[in-house]
Write a structure and sequence with these properties.
The protein is α/β, with parallel strands linked by helices and 184 residues long. It has helices at residues 18-28, 58-66, 88-93, 104-113, 127-137, 142-157, 171-181, and strands spanning 7-11, 32-34, 38-39, 54-55, 70-76, 79-84, 97-101, 118-123, 164-167. The protein has a five-stranded parallel beta sheet with strand order 2-7-1-8-9, with helices on both faces. The protein has a four-stranded mixed beta sheet with strand order 4-3-6-5. It binds adenosine-5'-diphosphate and guanosine-5'-monophosphate. The site of adenosine-5'-diphosphate (ADP) has 13 residues, from α1 and α5.
Length: 184
Amino acid sequence: MTSTRSLIVITGPSGVGKGSLVKMLLERNKKVWLSVSATTREPRDHEVDEEDYYFLKVDRFKELIQKNGFLEWAEFAGNFYGTPRAQIDQKISEGRLVLLEIELEGARQVRKSFPNSLHIFLAPPSFEELEKRIRGRGTDSAVSINRRLNRAKEELLAQKEFDAVVINDELEVALKNIEKLMGL
Ligand code: ADP
Ligand code: 5GP
C-alpha cells in the first residue's frame, strides 16, 4: 500500500504545458519515474508507441478495464486514457517518485484510492494564453481543440480540489515550483 507522497499527480487543461514541464522534470531528476499511459487516440506525428503512450484499439482498452488492468481511467475529448496498474507499486518500493500526468476524472479516482498522493494542478496565466498555446502547438484538429477548450473551463473550476496550484507562465519558474512541492 502506498503511504507516502511517492505518488504524484499532475493535472491541468490541455495545452497548459504539462508535457513540456514533465519532460524537463524527468531530464533533471532521475528519481522521478513517469507512468506511460494507455490511450485509444491516434498517435501524433512525433509520438512513439510504448514511449509516449501505449496506443490501443478501443476493444483492447475495454478488455483491460474488465481485467482491472488500470489504476484509473477516463474518457477525454472522445478517447479513452488510463494508467496501467503494473509497475506502479514496484517503482514506489524501489524508492522512485511515481508521476502520473492525467486529467481531472482520473485524478479524482487516484485521490480516492491513494489519499496520500500529492495532487498538483497546472494552470495557465490566462484562458487566452491557453488557447494560444493549444492552437500554436498545431497537433489537434479544430474539433479536438474546441472539445479541449470546453473541457478546460470545467477543469479550471476544479483547481481548489488540488493540494497545490502552479501557474505555468515562465517554464523555469513553474518547474522549480513543482520540484519544490515534490521535495526535489
Ligand atoms: P499539454 O501537455 O499540457 O497539453 P504542452 O506541453 O504540449 O501542453 O504545451 C502546449 C504548447 O505550449 C506547446 O507548444 C509548448 O511548447 C507551449 N508551452 C508550454 N509551456 C509554455 C510556457 N511556459 N510559455 C509559453 N509556451 C509554453
Ligand atoms: P493528450 O491527448 O493531449 O495527450 O491528453 C489528453 C488528456 O488526457 C490530458 O489532460 C492528459 O493529462 C490526460 N491523460 C493522459 N494519460 C492519462 C491517463 O492515463 N489517465 C487519465 N485519466 N488521463 C490521462
